[in-house]
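As a next step, the fold was encoded as tokens, giving this record:
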Amino acid sequence: MTKFTNGENSKDHVGDEYFLTSHDKIRFFFEEDAFDPATGALAKPKHHAINKIGHYLHALNPAFRDVTLNPGNGSITRSLGFKDPRVLQSMIICKQPEIGARVPPHQDSTFLYTNPPSAVGFWIALEDATAGNGCLSFAKGSHRRTPLKTRFVRRQDEKGTEFVEVDGAKFPSALEVEEPVDEEEYTLGEVKAGTLVLIHGNLLHKSEKNLSGKSRFIYTFHVIEGLLEYDVKNWLQPPEDGFTRLYQASA
């Protein structure tokens, strides 16, 4: 059973074979706190123990394919300047009641690196997201101030994953960059079910642990510019036929 760990409370971010080969499958990852620390046995019912489901929902599940590959999303990516938008991963993230883990500040392009960075997250609330159940918080404008310092890659010895320094571009091309600040201020992003939130790949965002009795489920997929370099170092590698063209369903 694979637990999804974000690297904050564990030495390593999740990176086993089950995780690394999920690029063209729908797989289930457990919440760390769903297990009894003394025995290692599952301490929650399975439907209350899942952290996330991914990473190929947009291709293998008809309902999520329709939500992802549609003319509306095609229009959004065009308006953002994409020439060849590719959907490279999709997930249901389950912020489970009482145990949904805290996610520390991070930038999505750290995990989905193109040179230069181009990732954009489409984040859809399936339930109301509130301060109580662990909604997202955003550091407004941080995408212009915060360069990508590390990226999440496959280890060269093929034994899991690691974070390494970025040796390519650290900001998207044509982005007006601002001076960094000493400390970023985060703003809660409480939203109603059905809300779409677009997340710039360089934007710092986080969420707190869900200590409430209510879940906070969301669906998210990420788009990159297909014309840019996406190398073999990235943890997520394309399926045999490549990452999914968003325009194929919206042209």
Remarks:
- The longest strand covers residues 85-95.
- The radius of gyration is 18 Å.
- Residues 71-79 form the longest helix (9 residues).
- The mean pLDDT is 93.
